[in-house]
């Protein structure tokens, strides 16, 4: 997990790497106002944030003569962004399975 941007709360970027239902079951007594759907949503937003961070890293390489690799990565990220948006649009946030 990458907690460099987390500060004082759970990093949404890392929630897509854990079993969200298991995580929620472990923290729900401490955070009774938070539902499993909140963690599911945060995990999806975390995927988006991770992609934005990766895109910013690739942009650092655009100032060099060889652009093939950065441009290919951006094409991959563009496709992944479309996947994430579709996942968010069709997500069943309340599913606890």
Core attributes:
elongated; single chain; mainly alpha; 97 residues; 4 helices
Q: What does this protein look like?
A:
There is one protein chain. 62% of the residues lie in helices and 0% in strands. The chain has 97 residues and is an all-alpha fold. The protein has one domain (12-90). Helix 3 (36-60) runs antiparallel to helix 4 (68-90). The longest helix is centred in the middle third of the chain and has 25 residues, at 36-60. The radius of gyration is 16 Å and the shape is elongated. The chain starts with 11 loop residues before the first helix and ends in a 7-residue tail after the last helix.
Q: Would you summarize the structure shown here?
A:
With 97 residues, the chain is mainly alpha-helical. The chain has helices spanning 12-15, 20-27, 36-60, 68-90.
Outline the biggest β-sheet: none
Question: Which consecutive residue ranges, at least 5 long each, have pLDDT under 50?
Answer: none
Regarding quaternary structure, how should these chains be classified? single chain
Radius of gyration: 16 Å
* Terminus-to-terminus distance: 23 Å
* Average pLDDT score: 78
How much of the residues is beta strand, in percent? under 5%
Helix count, per DSSP?
4
Order of helices and strands, N to C? HHHH
Helix residue percentage: 55-70%
Question: Can you tell me the overall shape?
Answer: elongated
Quantity of strands, as a count: 0
Structural class: mainly alpha
Q: How many discrete domains? A: 1
């Amino acid at each position: 997990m990458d907690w460099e941007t987390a500060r004082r709360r759970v990093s949404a970027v890392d929630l897509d790497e854990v079993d969200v239902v298991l995580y929620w079951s472990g923290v729900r007594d401490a955070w009774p106002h938070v539902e499993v759907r909140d963690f599911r949503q945060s995990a999806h937003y975390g995927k988006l944030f991770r992609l934005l961070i990766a895109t910013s890293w690739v942009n650092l390489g655009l100032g060099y003569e060889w652009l093939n690799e950065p441009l290919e990565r951006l094409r991959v990220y563009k496709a992944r962004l479309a996947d994430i948006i579709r996942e968010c649009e069709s997500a069943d946030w309340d599913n606890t399975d």
